[in-house]
Amino acid sequence: MGSRWHISARTAQRYRQLIENQIAPHLGPKTLQKLTRLDVEGWHTALRNGGLAARTIGHAHRVLGKALGDAERDGAVVKNVCKLQKVPKVTEVEMVIVRDVPAFVDKLRGERLYVPAMVALFSGMRLGEVLALRWNRVDLDGKVLKVREALEQTKAHGIRFKPPKSKAGRRDITLPDILIDALREHRKAALELQMRLGAGRLPDDALLFSTIEGKPLQPSNLSSDWGELAERIGEPGVTFHALRHTHASQLIASGVDIVTISKRLGHAKPSVTLAIYAHMFTTDDSKAAAAINAALNC
Question: Which pairs count as long-range contacts for 100-104, CB under 8 Å and 24+ apart, including other chains?
Answer without folding.
Answer: 101/246, 101/250, 104/235, 104/238
